[in-house]
Amino acid sequence: MNWKNKLMQILALLIARLFWNPLFITKDAREIIKSHFGMEQNIFLADVQYKTVTRDLVQRFLDVDPLDMEKWRKESFDCDDFAFQLFARFKYVFRGAAFGVCWIVNPPHAVNFFIDSSFKVWMVEPQTDDIFKKRRDWQIWFVVM
Questions:
Q1: Residue 66 has what pLDDT?
Q2: Are 142 and 41 in contact (CB under 8 A)?
Q3: Are 86 and 112 in contact (CB under 8 A)?
């Protein structure tokens, strides 16, 4: 990608940030997560309320964030490191966003997730920037938001 296209993507993200108009999630965040992931415990919510984000907004961010270009390294920069890096980068730009990290039991893996303005949960693979719905065979073990 040339620098002009990259600059245009960054500008589009900044404009999106200026006009970000989220819905607020308060006590319902835990219920949304419990319902979507089918779990009762191991849900750590650091804040009382969160702001929804749209899939388009997350995709715009992923388009300009270079994390997916990093090299995977066993134990020193693997799936959990990618997920926490994306978590921190996204929350720095979109403070209070309903964006988190979750761990899958089988196969063992860490990915990100977010809650959109329809209160639907989407998964993000931080190593490839793919956005998708949770696979039915995934059992989620731990969630941080």
A1: 79
A2: no
A3: yes
> What domains sit in the chain, N to C, each tagged with a CATH number?
3-144 (3.30.460.70)
Q: In this structure, which amino acid lies at residue 32?
A: I
Q: What token pair was written down for 87?
A: 């978590």
- What per-residue confidence (pLDDT) applies to 64? 84
Specify whether the CB–CB gap between 79 and 110 falls below 8 A: yes
| pLDDT means over runs of 10, the chain (145 residues) | 69 74 79 90 92 93 81 75 93 92 91 94 96 91 94
Spatial contact of 96 and 52, defined as CB atoms under 8 Å apart: no
Looking at 8-75, which runs of residues are DSSP E strands?
24-25, 43-44, 50-51
Residue at 124: amino acid letter: V
Our CA angle for 46, 48, 49, nearest 5°, is 110
pTM as predicted = 0.85
Q: Cα-Cα-Cα-Cα dihedral of 42, 45, 50, 53, to 10°?
A: -40
For residue 101, with 0-12 CB atoms within 10 Å meaning exposed, 13-18 middle and 19 or more buried, which class applies?
buried
